[in-house]
Design goal:
The complex is a heterodimer of chains A (309) and B (419).
Chain A (H helix, E strand, L loop, with lengths): L12 H28 L2 E4 L2 E4 L3 H8 L1 H36 L7 H9 L6 H11 L6 H8 L16 H13 L1 H12 L3 H9 L4 H29 L3 H7 L12 H10 E2 L2 E2 L2 H26 L9
Antiparallel strand pairs in A: 1-2, 3-4
Helix pairs in contact in A: 1-13, 2-3, 3-7, 3-8, 3-10, 5-11, 8-10, 10-13, 12-13
Chain B lengths: L1 H22 L3 E7 L5 H15 L3 E7 L5 H11 L5 E4 L3 H8 L17 H4 L13 E13 H6 L8 H14 L3 E3 L7 H11 L1 H4 L2 H9 L7 H13 L12 H9 L3 E7 L3 H7 L4 E4 L11 E12 L6 H11 L2 H10 L4 E2 L10 H12 L1 E3 L14 H14 L4 H13 L7
Parallel strand pairs in B: 1-2, 1-3, 5-6, 8-10
Antiparallel strand pairs in B: 3-8, 4-6, 4-7, 4-8, 4-9
Helix pairs in contact in B: 8-17, 11-17, 11-18, 17-18
Classes of the chains: A mainly alpha (309), B alpha/beta (419).
Chain lengths: 309, 419
C-alpha cells in the first residue's frame, strides 16, 4: 500500500477496542498491585499509621544480620532449586521429546500423556502424595528399596537438612517435566521433512542428526523454556508450603523466597505479619526476576539464530 | 404511561425488598475459629444449645486451618469481611487485634464475672484493666501412654526423669513398640510437646517464666538450657526416620498401638479416645528428683471475642455471656475432653483420661507456655525460633547451648529487659 493511494488514514478504533479488555484487566489485577507492593515497601507502620521511610526497609533487609541471613539463605536455596530444574528437568524434557518424536517408538501417545499428567495436578495433591511415598512410616519408598536389598540407601529425605531441598526440587521436576517436553516436542514436529531428508542425503543420520540439525533448530524453544523455568522457580511457593509448612523446615533448609515472603507478609503462629517488610521482599523478588528476564531478552534471545523455512 | 409503569415496577421491587428484609430479621452470628476439628461438636451440640435459649439468633461456625488461622483472620479483619465473633489466640496475637480496634472490650460483660484473674490473663491488656475475650478453655501438657504396652512389659508409671528414661530403655530393648511417638518435621511438637512440656519442672513454672520476662533470668541460664539437654536424649527413643515424621504421623503411630509413650497436650484426648482400641493412661512431666515439686503447663489456650464492626452487637454479647455460663462450661468440657474450663464453675467431667489430666492441677503448680506472654512480640519471634531450636536439638544438628545462645541473642536484640 503506497502513501499516494490513501491520503487520509481512518482512525483504526477496532485496535483500541479489541485491546481494551486485556489492557484494563491486566492493569487492574497485575500492574496496579505491583505498584502497590512497590509503594508499600517504602513505608513502615509507626503507631498504627503508615510513615514514609524511603529505602530504609531495604537497608534493614540487607543490613540487619538476621534479616540478611534469612534473605541470603532463601536466595541461595532458590538458586539451587533453579539449578536442579535446569540440570534435570530441561535436559530430560528434551530427551523425552526427542524419543517421543521418533517414528519408531510404540505407545508414544501413552508416554506423552503419562509424562504430562502430573503437570495438571494440584500442588497440594503432588506434595501430599510424595510426602506419603517418602514417609519413613507408611511410605512405599522404603519398602521398594527393601525389596531390591537397598534399604540402607533410604533416609527420611524430607526431614534432613542436607537432602530436603534437593528432594523437593526433584518432586517439582517430576511434576513439571511435561511442559518442556511438550514445547520441545512441538518444535521438533515443526521441523520440515525436507530438511531432514536433505540431511540424510548428506549422510547425517541418527545421533548426529539430532545434535547437528534438530537441536540448533529447537534452541529458541529451549531459551523460552529456560526463562519460564527461571520465572516459575523464583516465584515458587506452593510445593514447599504444602510439604514443609511456612517455617520451611528442617531448620529453614527449604526456605525459598516465596515462603520467606509469605512468613514475613502474613505472619506465622505468634509472629504477626509485617506487610511492609513483606513487600520489601516481594519487590526484591520482582527485581531479581526482572533482571533475569532482561538478561535473557537482551543478552541471549537477540543472539539466537532463527531459521525460516 | 411508560414512566408510571416503570415507577410501579420500582415501587414493587422496593416493597419486595423490604418484605425480604423484614423476614430476615433473625440476627446471624458468624464465628471465626482455627478449631476445624471441632466443627461437628459446634454444629451438633454447642450451637443448638445456644439457639434453643436465644430464639432469633442464628450462629454459624466457620473455622479455617490452624496453621493459617492468624494470617487468614488478619487479612479478613483488614478487609472488613471477618465474622462477628472471633476465637482468640492467647496473649499478643489477640492483644494486637485489640489495639488495632479489631476486638471489642468485654470487661463489663455479665459472663466475665465467672473467671479468675489468671484465667483472664491471656486476654487482658498488660496492666490487666481491660479484657477483650471471654476465656473458653486451657490445655494441659503431659504424656499419654499405652497402658496395655506398659502392663505387657511390666512397667510402672514413671515419677522421675530417671524412671522415664529407664522405662524408655526397657521399651526399646523389648523392640515391640517404638518408645516414643514424636517427629520433628512439623517442628511445633518438638517445642510445644517437648520443651514447653518438660521445661516448667526446670524453670519452676511461673517463677522462671516471670523472671525471664523481667530480665532476671536469661535463656542461656542452666534452667533454660537443661530442658534442651534432656530433649537431645529423646532422639534415641523416637521412631526410624523421625526427621520426616509429621504430627498426624505421630498421632497415628500412637493410636495404632505402635508406640508406647506420646508426649501430649490434653487436646488429643477426644481424638485418641475415638481411635485407640487399647487402654490409655497419662502422667505429668516427671520431676527431676524424687520429691521435687512438680510443675505443669496449664496453658490458657482459647477464648472468644467480639468484632467491633459486627452488625448485631447485642446478639454477639448474648453469645459471649453464654460462653461464661455454667451450661457452656459443662457442655464444652464434656464434648471436648482435654479442653478444660477456665471458669469458676464446678464442672463435672465424665472422661477418665481428662479427669487424670485435670487432677494434676491439684498436686502440681500450674504455669503457661514461657514464650507466649510479651516475649514473642518482636522479630525474631521467640516462639517460632523455639520451634526451630527444639527441632534442631532433637535432630542433633544443634547443641543445646548453641540453640539457647541463639535464642537469647535474638531476644536481646529487641527486648528492653534483656538488652
Amino acid at each position: 500500500m503506497s502513501a499516494s493511494e490513501q491520503k487520509k488514514k481512518p482512525v483504526r478504533w477496532h485496535i483500541a477496542v479489541f485491546l481494551a479488555p486485556a489492557v484494563l484487566i491486566y492493569t487492574a489485577i497485575m500492574i496496579l498491585p505491583l505498584f502497590g507492593t512497590l509503594q508499600l515497601s517504602l513505608f513502615r507502620e509507626v503507631d498504627q499509621s503508615q510513615v514514609f521511610v524511603g529505602f530504609d526497609n531495604f537497608r534493614i533487609l540487607f543490613g540487619d544480620p538476621r534479616w540478611s541471613e534469612s534473605f541470603w539463605n532463601a536466595l541461595f536455596n532458590n538458586t539451587w532449586f533453579f539449578i536442579i530444574h535446569m540440570l534435570v528437568q530441561n535436559p530430560l524434557g528434551i530427551l523425552f521429546a526427542a524419543l517421543l518424536s521418533s517414528p519408531k517408538l510404540r505407545f508414544s501417545v501413552f508416554y506423552r500423556t503419562a509424562i504430562f499428567v502430573p503437570t495438571i495436578l494440584s500442588f497440594v495433591i503432588v506434595g501430599f502424595a510424595w510426602k506419603l511415598i517418602l514417609s519413613p512410616l507408611w511410605g512405599i519408598a522404603p519398602d521398594m528399596l527393601d525389596a531390591v536389598g537397598l534399604k540402607s540407601l533410604f533416609a527420611p529425605w524430607l526431614g534432613k537438612t542436607e537432602y530436603a531441598l534437593t528432594t523437593l526440587s526433584l518432586i517439582s521436576v517430576w511434576q513439571f517435566i511435561g511442559i518442556p517436553m511438550m514445547l520441545i516436542y512441538a518444535a521438533l514436529l515443526s521441523i520440515p521433512d525436507e530438511v531432514l531428508e536433505a540431511a540424510e542425503c548428506d549422510g547425517i543420520t541418527g545421533m548426529s542428526q539430532f545434535w547437528k540439525i534438530k537441536l540448533p533448530l529447537v534452541l529458541p524453544s529451549i531459551g523460552i523454556i529456560s526463562i519460564l523455568t527461571f520465572v516459575g522457580n523464583f516465584n515458587a511457593f506452593d510445593l514447599i508450603y504444602t510439604t514443609q509448612g511456612a517455617l520451611a523446615g528442617p531448620d529453614y533448609a527449604t526456605d525459598i523466597l516465596g515462603t520467606f515472603l509469605y512468613r514475613t507478609f502474613f505472619g506465622f503462629q505468634l509472629q504477626i505479619g509485617d506487610p511492609n517488610m513483606g513487600s520489601t521482599i516481594a519487590s526484591v523478588m520482582f527485581l531479581i526476576i526482572l533482571a533475569g528476564v532482561s538478561l535473557y531478552l537482551f543478552g541471549i534471545q537477540t543472539r539466537l539464530r532463527r531459521y525460516q523455512f | 404511561m411508560k414512566s408510571t409503569s416503570l415507577k410501579g415496577l420500582l415501587l414493587a421491587s422496593t416493597l419486595l425488598c423490604s418484605i425480604g428484609y423484614a423476614q430476615a430479621q433473625d440476627a446471624e452470628l458468624t464465628i471465626e475459629s482455627w478449631r476445624n476439628d471441632d466443627l461437628e461438636i459446634w454444629q451438633s451440640k454447642l450451637i443448638p444449645a445456644f439457639e434453643a435459649k436465644h430464639p432469633g439468633i442464628k450462629v454459624k461456625f466457620t473455622p479455617s486451618a490452624p496453621a493459617e488461622y492468624n494470617a487468614v483472620l488478619n487479612s479478613k479483619l483488614e478487609a472488613g469481611s471477618a465474622g462477628d465473633l472471633i476465637t482468640c489466640r492467647p496473649f499478643d496475637a489477640s492483644l494486637a487485634l485489640y489495639e488495632d480496634g479489631h476486638l471489642a472490650a468485654v470487661t463489663d460483660l455479665e459472663g466475665m464475672k465467672n473467671f479468675s484473674d489468671v484465667a483472664k490473663s491471656g486476654w487482658s491488656t498488660d496492666d490487666g484493666s481491660v479484657q477483650f475475650c471471654v476465656p473458653m478453655a486451657s490445655v494441659i501438657h503431659g504424656f499419654i501412654y499405652n497402658k496395655d504396652a506398659f502392663d505387657e512389659l511390666g512397667l510402672s508409671v514413671p515419677q522421675t526423669e530417671a524412671e522415664l528414661f529407664a522405662a524408655l530403655d526397657k521399651i526399646k530393648e523389648d523392640g515391640n513398640y517404638v518408645p516414643m511417638a514424636m517427629g520433628t518435621n512439623d517442628q511445633w511438637e518438638a517445642a510445644t510437646m517437648g520443651y514447653q512440656n518438660i521445661g516448667p519442672n526446670y524453670w519452676k513454672g511461673e517463677e522462671g517464666r516471670l523472671a525471664l520476662i523481667k530480665g532476671d533470668q536469661k535463656l542461656t541460664d542452666d534452667v533454660w538450657v537443661q530442658p534442651y539437654e534432656t530433649l537431645a536424649k529423646w532422639k534415641d527413643y523416637l521412631g526410624d526416620g523421625f526427621e520426616a515424621q509429621t504430627y498426624p504421623d505421630s498421632q497415628n503411630m500412637f493410636t495404632l498401638g505402635r508406640a508406647a509413650i506420646y508426649p501430649a497436650g490434653s487436646w488429643e484426648i477426644s481424638g485418641f479416645n475415638n481411635l485407640a482400641d487399647f487402654k490409655m493412661g497419662a502422667f505429668p512431666p516427671p520431676v527431676r528428683n524424687a520429691g521435687d515439686d512438680c510443675y505443669i503447663s496449664d496453658h490458657t489456650d482459647i477464648a472468644i471475642g467480639m468484632n467491633p464492626k459486627t452488625a448485631n452487637p447485642e446478639a454477639a454479647k448474648a453469645f459471649l455471656n453464654w460462653v461464661g455460663s455454667e451450661e457452656f462450661a459443662t457442655l464444652y468440657a464434656n464434648s471436648l475432653p482435654g479442653f478444660f474450663s477456665l471458669s469458676n464453675h464446678d464442672v463435672k467431667m465424665d472422661d477418665a483420661l481428662a479427669q487424670e489430666f485435670v487432677s494434676w492441677r491439684g498436686k502440681c503448680n500450674s504455669t503457661i507456655r514461657s514464650t507466649y506472654q510479651i516475649l514473642s512480640r518482636g522479630t525474631p519471634n521467640l516462639e517460632n525460633e523455639t520451634w526451630n531450636a527444639s527441632a534442631n536439638v532433637i535432630r542433633g544438628t544443634e547443641a543445646p547451648q548453641d540453640a539457647a545462645k541463639r535464642l537469647q541473642d535474638g531476644l536481646a536484640s529487641w527486648y528492653e529487659n534483656h538488652k
